[in-house]
Design brief:
This protein is of the alpha/beta class and 309 residues long. Helix content is 36%, strand content 25%. The protein is built from ten helices and 14 strands. The chain has a nine-stranded mixed sheet with strand order 6-5-1-9-10-11-12-13-14, sandwiched between helices. Strands 2, 3, 4, 7 and 8 form a five-stranded mixed sheet that branches. GO terms for molecular function: kinase activity.
Length: 309
């Protein structure tokens, strides 16, 4: 199945306790596309960049069979730029610079080759932009996956509710789930969000893993304990990319296969944090991914000998 990804292709500048970078390749759609490419998924990106965006980055994406036909280049504009500094625990960060630039007036242009995509992953953009993508598709995709954030809950609530109602899978973090639902318990939060429209609710908990909810059923996966974490930027997007790519490759949207997709996404994200930006993700092979999935299996599989009278 075709996977269509709509989101940001951008520049990041990152500072963590382990070092800092100048402007490097970033953006949600970039991480998603690179993750999907490891699974050899038929993936197309829709985004916008400025004339300052290096052609070599687009060439790199194309070399991994990621279609950039839908990436608009505004010659006299500047690419979206974000700069942040992570605290020592890497769970919190301060935004230093946000330059929206060409993304401010982003009107997604869906290439003809992507209008019949069966799986649509909408990255964290204004919900009005996300809705416009659905309207431009030839027919409704078989699976619509949505990412959103607190900012849109604060500033675009009504249109966000309209978008969520048209969504099959929503992926948000625990803080966002609590704000969206008004519930502190993540179980209650998922139930409330489920009533808004999505069949599946994924709540990401960073270093504590992720939860999948569907019709009263729950699946939990831990994050893989890593010796070194250099940069968590893009980990959530990489997770979404691995998750969506697995579903597109298998064409199976059942709860059991969603569980497998979450494991794939988590394994992929565990690589992203090992280096700055997209550097580590560009190195990952299918065998690397299989090896990491095997570690997840070892981590979560056990037997118990009952000894009670």
């Amino acid at each position: 199945m075709k996977l269509l990804v709509v989101g940001s292709v951008a520049f990041d500048a990152i500072e963590t306790p382990f070092g800092k970078t100048d402007k490097i390749l970033g953006g949600a759609a970039t991480f998603i596309g690179l993750a999907a490419s490891v699974l050899k998924t038929d993936v197309s990106l829709v985004s916008v960049v400025g004339g300052d965006f290096p052609q070599e980055y687009l060439d790199m994406l194309e070399s991994r069979n990621i279609s950039t036909e839908g990436v608009e280049v505004v010659k006299d504009g500047k690419t979206f730029f974000w700069s942040g500094r992570y605290h020592n625990d890497l769970n919190s960060r301060d935004t230093l610079v946000t330059e929206v630039n060409v993304l401010e007036n982003f009107d997604p242009k869906i290439p003809e080759s992507g209008k019949d995509a069966e799986v649509l992953l909408l990255g964290n953009l204004h919900p009005g932009v996300q809705l416009s993508v659905l309207e431009k598709m030839e027919k409704r995709p078989k699976l619509v996956i949505l990412d959103t954030m607190n900012f849109w809950m604060d500033t675009a609530w009504d249109i966000l509710m309209e978008m969520i109602a048209k969504t099959d899978v929503i992926t948000i973090n625990d803080e966002e789930a609590r704000q969206l639902s008004g519930e502190y318990s993540l179980v209650k939060a998922a139930q409330k969000i489920h009533s808004m429209g999505p069949d599946y609710v994924i709540i990401k908990k960073g270093e504590h893993g992720a939860l999948l909810f569907h019709e009263g059923k729950v699946f939990a996966i831990p994050a893989l304990p890593l010796e070194e974490v250099f940069d968590p930027t893009g980990a959530g997007d990489t997770f979404a990319g691995g998750f969506a790519a697995h579903l597109a490759k298998t064409g199976d949207f059942s709860f059991d296969n969603m569980k497998s997709a979450i494991i794939v996404g988590s394994a992929m994200a565990s690589y992203t944090v090992e280096k700055f930006g997209t550097e580590r993700l560009q190195e990952v092979t299918q065998q690397d991914l299989l090896d990491r999935i095997a570690l997840f299996k070892q981590l979560t599989t056990f037997e118990v000998d009952l000894y009670f009278d």
